[in-house]
Task: structure prediction
Amino acid sequence: MRVWIVDVNGTRLFIAAATTPQASSGLDKETQQIVASIRFGAKVKTDEMLGIAERFMDARNAYDAETAMSMLADGEVTAQLQSDNWMSSGMFGVQLSHGELALAFEAERLYGVRYESFGCRREDFRMEGNGGSANVVCRYSMDSRMRQLAGWPPVDSAFGLGIHGGKIDVLTFPWLNISWGPDGYHPAEFQRFVLWLDAAHPEAINAAHPGTAQRLFRVAGQEWILKLTPETLDLLSGYLDEYERSVHT
Result:
């Protein structure tokens, strides 16, 4: 049995979690994630939450990483993975440090992602298995460098934001993960880039090259998740420029 006792504005909150000896380490980790996801703070009104979400989206569209970072909660933040550009309760989340989040906003700039005609509304959306939850959903028309190179128009999409105590602790980067299962690559705009990358730079992702199979991405289930390090972003920037040149020749 594990017990957490927290003083919340003079009120004692008692949380207990009990497991049997047969419980797996995964269950213990899930319990820790659930407890870690609990936030205490002044209740934020709906209109204030929507204002935060809209300012955050404006900052992302302007590639103003400093403003976007200032709106995030302290410590690690949950980045919820997408399923072909859409939210899905079956997708898990990854925990990103503030250093990784700063790199994520830079990667968003490299990918040229823009959220046009977006609109945010109060809507609860619970994610399975990662302890994160969204309470604002933003719908938008998304354009990106990948879609432009493929000759495709913007795509309608949506993601959730978790806003607690005036800070964002759950967010989404639609480009962060690429599903590489038997049905192909999703989101589809990444397919041509990944196939080109496999042919032009197999050392970046091909398992046939020991020690370099996860040079650009790390593998989690059927997802390739972009590694967020300065070295990886330097590689990504060079690969994207080279790929764009190949498309135009």
Notes: Confidence is low (pLDDT under 50) at residues 208-213. The chain is about 35% helix and 30% strand.
